[in-house]
Amino acid sequence: MYKRVRLKDTVEVPPRELGDVSPDLVKRLLQDKLEGRMDEEVGSVVSVTEVHDIGEGTVLPNRPGVYYEAEFDAVTFDPQMQEVVDGTVVEVVEFGAFVGIGPVDGLLHVSQISNEYLAFDGENQRLASNESDRSLDVDDAVRARIVTKSIDERNPRDSKIGLTAKQPGLGKHGWLREERDEPEEATAGE
């Protein structure tokens, strides 16, 4: 999911900054340009951490700045298919819950949350079961598996990640604790 990678990219140094083309300046320019941007090959750039090499500057016709190619380290977020992730419910809607996983949200469709039917409770912004006292609310911690992924490089916030929690070991953390503790209680009473 999170990776440290070595990348190369080009930044434009504006004329007012040309007196001091330092690694710190190039790092700041790379951060402004890349952080939060989604790339199909490396995922979302979370942070530019260190600049290793700055090439010779290039001047382009009718452009005021000077362009420098830089080699740098970055931390990226690249969710993989079938990966199990922990996240927090950030929004509950009629058709499911949006779960924050790193810098993006994944959709946990209502049909992929539980084997119980969960109805939308708009007043309390939650999904609740009529069969038990279980509910899924905003700020609940969940564990899910990535089952679909569609990355939009131009608009990263429009990227779509589909999640499921309908397998053993997946679901709301509180439910997982209950399931883990139930066998102990059943054997203790025998």
| Number of separate helices | 2
Pattern of helices and strands: EHEEEEEEEEEEEEEH
Strand content: over 45%
Number of distinct beta strands: 14
> How many strands, which pairing sense, and closed or not: the largest β-sheet?
5 strands, antiparallel
Determine the N-to-C terminus distance: 44 Å
- Give helix % range: 10-25%
Radius of gyration: 23 Å
Mean pLDDT equals 88
Using the alpha-carbon principal axes, give the shape: elongated
Label the structural class.
mainly beta
User: Would you identify the regions where 5 or more consecutive residues have pLDDT less than 50?
Assistant: none
Structure in a nutshell:
With 190 residues, the chain is mainly β. The model has no long low-confidence stretch (mean pLDDT 88).
What can you see in these coordinates?
- By secondary structure, this protein is mostly beta strands.
- Helices cover about 15% and strands about 45% of the residues.
- It has helices spanning about 25-35, 175-190, and strands at about 1-15, 40, 45-55, 60, 65-75, 85-95, 95-100, 105-110, 120, 125-130, 135, 140-150, 160-165, 170.
- The longest helix has 16 residues, at about 175-190.
- It is elongated, with a radius of gyration of 23 Å.
Keywords:
190 residues, mainly beta, five-stranded mixed β-barrel, 14 strands, 47% strand, elongated
Layout of secondary structure:
Layout: E1 2-13, H1 23-34, E2 38-39, E3 43-54, E4 58-59, E5 66-77, E6 84-93, E7 96-101, E8 104-109, E9 118-121, E10 126-129, E11 135-137, E12 141-150, E13 160-164, E14 171-172, H2 173-188
